[in-house]
């Protein structure tokens, strides 16, 4: 059974180098996402494509090795991932990460070229325009710039800005309306951690999951990106070592647009 994921987030680490007043995660933990967990996620599921992967945290630049590992696995195994992003507090510059981001951008460019080239390898003028207009649109680095974060390190920002084509640099400020009273935060909206269902529909060759899938640093699958670490560990869809995407949809999915609900085929899971 194949799946299309619209939005996937990997919690690369629960470590952080800041202590922000609005942090909804709570006390940081010395837990990093590992290659074994990444392998279990990809190897135990079959994906038609993944539209977007976001590397989050914690602070993802504190565990750059797992981002690099994931990117290289995507390229090595020719996994159809359309674009990736990293959300950072802008305090640390990691040149090896930039190199990996460039590798992914080149990989996506080659995938696009292969998909539109004729059998003789020639690309039409329109096709070339499509490639040229998307050459640098596959990787995004987003700096958190709201009033709760410390200022971005100007030298770090400059180095990312000057790191060459293929990286889109953006900034994002969390608005007060998006802050909840959980974790360190004592202001904002009231919050109760829940596990929303995953809406899915059927495409010709795969099931398309419309909602976000969030994998924590210790390998738990959830559909909720807010809340404390302890919430996610207490309420989730299961661990990647014994829960496939298919099983998650059986237990937590919501079939829409007339799609027949998935019934478990009891897929074999490779333990880690």
List the helices and strands and how they pair.
Blueprint: E1 2-5, E2 8-11, H1 35-43, E3 46-56, H2 64-76, E4 81-88, H3 95-116, H4 125-133, E5 139-144, H5 154-161, E6 168-172, E7 198-202, E8 207-209, E9 213-215, E10 220-222, H6 229-234, E11 238-239, H7 245-252, E12 253-255
Parallel strand pairs: 1-3, 1-8, 2-3, 2-9, 3-4, 4-5, 5-6, 7-12
Antiparallel strand pairs: 7-8, 9-10, 10-11
Overall description:
The protein has helices at 35-43, 64-76, 95-116, 125-133, 154-161, 229-234, 245-252, and strands at residues 2-5, 8-11, 46-56, 81-88, 139-144, 168-172, 198-202, 207-209, 213-215, 220-222, 238-239, 253-255. Helix 2 runs parallel beside helix 3. Helix content is 28%, strand content 21%. Strand 9 (213-215) and strand 10 (220-222) form a beta hairpin. Strands 1, 2, 3, 4, 5, 6, 7, 8, 9, 10, 11 and 12 form a 12-stranded mixed beta sheet that branches. The model is unreliable at 268-272 (pLDDT under 50). The chain has a single domain (2-255), classed as TIM Barrel. With 272 residues, the chain is an alpha/beta fold. It is globular. The longest helix is centred in the middle third of the chain and has 22 residues, at 95-116.
What would you say about this model in short?
By secondary structure, the protein is of the alpha/beta class.
Portion of residues within helices? 25-40%
CATH architecture: Alpha-Beta Barrel
Could you tell me the radius of gyration in angstroms?
19 Å
CATH class: Alpha Beta
Q: How many extended strands?
A: 12
Uncertain parts = 268-272
Report on the biggest sheet: 12 strands, mixed
Estimate the strand proportion: 15-25%
Please name the CATH topology. Answer: TIM Barrel
What is the H/E string?
A: EEHEHEHHEHEEEEEHEHE
Shape: globular
The number of helical elements comes to 7
Number of domains: 1
Which whole number gives the mean pLDDT?
Answer: 88
Could you give the distance between the termini?
Answer: 21 Å
Q: What structural class do you assign from the helix and strand content?
A: alpha/beta
């Amino acid at each position: 059974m194949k799946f299309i994921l619209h939005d996937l987030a990997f919690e690369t680490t629960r470590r952080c180098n800041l202590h922000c007043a609005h942090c909804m995660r709570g006390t940081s933990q010395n837990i990093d996402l590992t290659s074994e967990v990444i392998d279990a996620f990809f190897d135990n599921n079959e994906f038609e494509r993944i539209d977007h992967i976001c590397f989050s945290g914690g602070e993802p630049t504190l565990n750059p090795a797992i981002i690099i590992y994931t990117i290289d696995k995507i390229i090595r195994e020719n996994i159809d991932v359309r674009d990736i992003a990293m959300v950072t507090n802008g305090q640390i510059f990691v040149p090896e990460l930039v190199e990996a981001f460039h590798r992914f951008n080149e990989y996506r460019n080659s995938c696009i070229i292969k998909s539109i080239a004729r059998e003789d390898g020639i690309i039409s003028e329109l096709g070339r325009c499509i490639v040229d207009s998307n050459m640098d649109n596959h990787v995004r680095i987003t700096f958190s710039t709201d009033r709760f974060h410390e200022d971005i390190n100007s030298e770090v920002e400059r180095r990312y800005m000057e790191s060459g084509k293929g990286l889109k640099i953006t900034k994002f400020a969390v608005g007060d309306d998006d802050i909840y009273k959980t974790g360190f935060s004592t202001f904002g909206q009231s919050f109760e951690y829940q596990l929303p269902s995953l809406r899915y529909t059927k495409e010709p060759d795969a099931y398309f999951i419309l909602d976000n899938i969030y994998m924590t640093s210790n390998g738990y699958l959830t559909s909720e990106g807010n809340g404390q670490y302890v919430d996610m560990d207490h309420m989730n869809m299961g661990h990647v070592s014994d829960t496939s995407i298919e099983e998650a949809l059986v237990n937590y999915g919501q079939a829409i647009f007339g799609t027949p609900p998935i019934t478990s085929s009891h897929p074999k899971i490779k333990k880690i």
